[in-house]
Specification:
2 domains; binds zinc ion; six-stranded mixed beta sheet; two-stranded antiparallel sheet; 180 residues
C-alpha cells in the first residue's frame, strides 16, 4: 500500500515540546488550468516548514515547478520555471473554511499546494517576442469577420480606423448621465 507523499504525519508537532520541522516533497502532479499545465518533468518540489501552533500546524515555504504553456496566440508550447509561496494553517476545528483540516495526526498538503500553484499562474501566456501570431484557423475567421463589417454599400462604410476610433473614444455615451 502506497500513501500519498502529500500526507504528512505531524504527531511530533502537536505536543507541548514541539518544534518546527522542515519537509521537502518532490512529486509529479496533474494540475492545470485552461492553457497552462504543470509539467511532470521536472517534478514539483515543495520546500515546507511545519510550525506547531495552538490547535494545529502552520505551514510556510515555497513550491517550485515548471509549466507547459500554450501560447494564447499561436498555440505553440513553451516550458516556464515558476515558483509560488505557501502559507496556511491546518487545524482540527476548521469549520470556517479558511484553514485546512488536521485529521487525527495527519495533514494532506496536496489541496493547499494545488491552490497556491494554480492561483499563482497567469490566465494566459504568450511564447515571447518571436510569436508568429494567431494560429491559421483563428486568422481566417477574424478576417472574414472583418470583411463582413467592411462590405457595406449603404453609405456608412466603416473603415478599420472608424472601429479603432470607437474603441478609443467611447465617451459619447456617459453612463452616469444616462442612468439618471
Ligand atoms: Zn505564440
Amino acid at each position: 500500500m502506497t500513501s500519498s507523499p502529500f500526507v504528512l504525519n505531524v504527531s511530533d508537532l502537536l505536543g507541548r515540546d514541539a518544534s518546527s520541522r522542515r519537509v521537502t516533497i518532490t512529486e509529479a502532479v496533474d494540475w492545470k488550468i485552461e492553457m497552462i499545465e504543470v509539467a511532470h518533468d521536472p517534478p514539483l518540489t515543495a520546500d515546507l516548514v511545519l510550525h506547531p501552533v495552538s490547535g494545529g500546524v502552520a505551514i510556510t515555504g515555497r513550491v517550485r515547478f515548471s509549466t507547459k504553456d500554450s501560447c494564447y496566440r499561436c498555440l505553440s508550447v513553451t516550458m516556464t520555471d515558476r515558483d509560488a509561496s505557501v502559507g496556511a494553517l491546518f487545524e482540527r476545528d476548521n469549520d470556517d473554511g479558511e484553514t485546512y483540516p488536521l485529521d487525527g495526526h495527519e495533514i494532506d498538503v496536496s489541496q493547499l499546494l494545488r491552490d497556491e500553484v494554480l492561483l499563482s499562474l497567469p490566465i494566459i501566456e504568450d511564447c515571447g517576442d518571436g510569436c508568429p501570431g494567431l494560429a491559421t484557423g483563428l486568422v481566417t475567421s477574424a478576417r472574414s469577420d472583418l470583411n463582413t463589417g467592411l462590405s457595406g454599400d449603404d453609405g456608412g462604410v466603416r473603415t478599420p480606423f472608424a472601429v479603432l476610433k470607437d474603441l478609443l473614444e467611447p465617451e459619447e455615451h456617459d453612463p452616469e448621465t444616462e442612468a439618471k
